[in-house]
User: Which sequence fits this backbone?
């Protein structure tokens, strides 16, 4: 029996979860651990089953051992004892399948019917494709032809990014999927939308009278979104060299976070209304009018050899499976403008890169300075107020204000008041994939990207990619372990701003007041 502590809402309806790509990295690191956490928290119905699907042969025992190891290694809960494990593992089966062979799908259908009968599952089927995107179309067709979509319950398709390579290929992929699944049956994953603090942006904005009235171009001078990573491309050089930072992180995670910051309050808290508001932001992004404008507003970088402490880090072109003459960007920073009444004139600066000094995702909202000609600003150099949303790996928020230094006549010092969610004892935030698998099984598509969002994001990004394709050698190298090309700093300096230090590595004179619950 699952342990029902922390149960905060209904469990999912009984369903079979098919994990295509069950022997792959995503399944091992994220999906199996997420399913176990949901089970442990009582969020999975007792009548659930998981069928792992991949090409490699595996016995049921071997597969269950793989799942066990993945949970031991990557899950935030540990298996308590054999009895818990055996009850959980019973729900797992494995099917070796050549995904182009229709006969295999017919066998899968037979196995599924047996599993459904055994656990009393009412024909609900969730197909999670942790596969290369070029396979999404053919798997969908074969699911239909092999009879897998003929059961009496619901059928949902969950797919990983990247959704296409550009607008044209995304369109083609979408048309293929639409021949089999309706838009409301397709759940496109952007795992950033499953992160606690990204979801918290809505609450911080719309549940606090402090913020919402100020959330516009009258009071905010700029917004900065940083998604920095210390890792290089690791073993993903083959994929990454064709993708680059713009497609890997920009088109999806970064623009999605931007929409959460910039969107209008939805009229109702239902998935379609929320997604309508997000797509309006994406449609309001000012397209770069020319290649010159791309050059002036977007910085493109690639890491060269560098150091982290004493460790020498190879340059991108020396990485495994990367073309030694590659011009793929591992960093980009852009100035993005949102042309609507709320945001006209407020730059959103976004940056992401591999091999930067720290792993962090943060959103900084910088408020406009107090007027220079009145009262305190005549005498003091006041720092602007900031609201910082820390998404990952630290989770929390802090606000930076100005206050009088105790005991002084009128000396002013900046004060950062922090609420650290991830520092709380006993709070173990759910992983993004737990939330997303749970939502997909519940039929809640709020934190999945709708086709029109994907298309609008590609339309914006394609303009940058086209300009870069014209000038492939126009790329700034930065040393691995540094904060990226100097041009990214100039991008803000031209507007009179600078990137705020991330990860609480604030200037020395800031007094920190740290708190958890
Ligand atoms: C993935 C990208 O979508 O997000 C990776 O493909 C990147 O390149 C990863 O490393 C970052 O995710 P997170 O959750 O670790 O910040």
Assistant:
């Amino acid at each position: 029996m699952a342990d029902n502590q922390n149960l905060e809402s209904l469990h999912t309806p009984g369903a079979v979860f098919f994990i295509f790509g069950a022997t792959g990295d995503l399944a091992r690191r994220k999906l199996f651990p997420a399913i176990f956490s949901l089970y442990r928290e009582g969020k999975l119905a007792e009548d659930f089953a998981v069928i792992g699907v991949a090409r490699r042969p595996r016995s049921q025992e071997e597969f269950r051992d793989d799942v066990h190891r993945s949970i031991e290694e990557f899950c935030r809960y540990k298996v308590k004892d054999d009895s818990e494990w055996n009850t959980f593992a019973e729900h797992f089966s494995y099917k070796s399948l050549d995904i182009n062979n229709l006969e295999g799908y017919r066998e899968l259908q037979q196995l599924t019917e047996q599993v459904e009968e055994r656990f009393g599952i009412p024909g609900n089927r969730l197909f999670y494709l942790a596969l290369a995107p070029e396979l999404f179309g053919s798997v969908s067709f074969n699911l239909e032809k092999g009879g897998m979509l003929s059961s009496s319950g619901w059928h949902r398709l969950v797919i990983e990014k990247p959704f296409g390579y550009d607008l044209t290929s995304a369109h083609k992929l979408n048309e293929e999927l639409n021949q089999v699944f309706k838009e409301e049956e397709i759940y496109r994953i952007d795992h950033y939308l499953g992160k606690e603090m990204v979801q918290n942006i809505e609450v911080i904005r719309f549940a606090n009278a402090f913020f919402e009235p100020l959330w516009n171009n009258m009071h905010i001078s700029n917004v900065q979104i940083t998604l920095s990573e210390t890792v290089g491309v690791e073993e993903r050089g083959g994929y990454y060299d064709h993708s680059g930072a713009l497609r890997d992180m920009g088109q999806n995670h970064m623009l999605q976070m931007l929409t959460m910051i910039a969107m209008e309050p939805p009229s109702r808290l239902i998935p379609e209304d929320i997604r309508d508001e997000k797509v309006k932001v994406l449609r309001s992004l000012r397209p770069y009018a020319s290649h010159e404008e791309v050059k002036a507003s977007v910085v493109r970088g690639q890491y060269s050899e560098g150091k982290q402490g004493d460790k020498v880090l190879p340059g991108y072109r020396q990485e495994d499976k990367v073309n030694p003459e590659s011009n793929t960007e591992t960093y980009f920073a852009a100035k993005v403008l949102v042309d609507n009444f709320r945001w006209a004139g407020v730059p959103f600066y976004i940056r992401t890169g591999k091999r930067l000094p720290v792993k962090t995702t943060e959103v900084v909202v910088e408020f406009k300075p107090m007027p220079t000609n009145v009262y305190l600003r005549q005498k003091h150099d006041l720092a602007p107020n900031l609201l910082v949303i820390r998404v990952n790996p630290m989770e929390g928020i802090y606000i930076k204000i100005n206050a009088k230094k105790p005991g002084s006549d009128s000396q002013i010092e900046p004060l950062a008041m922090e609420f650290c969610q991830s520092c709380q004892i006993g709070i173990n935030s759910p992983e993004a994939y737990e939330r997303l698998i749970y939502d997909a099984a519940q039929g809640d598509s709020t934190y999945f990207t709708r086709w029109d969002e994907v298309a609008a994001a590609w339309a914006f990004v394609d303009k940058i990619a086209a300009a870069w394709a014209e000038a492939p050698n126009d790329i700034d190298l930065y040393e691995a372990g540094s904060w990226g090309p100097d041009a990214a700093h100039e991008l803000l300096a031209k507007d009179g701003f600078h990137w705020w230090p991330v990860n609480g590595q604030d200037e020395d004179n800031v007094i920190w007041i740290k708190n958890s619950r």
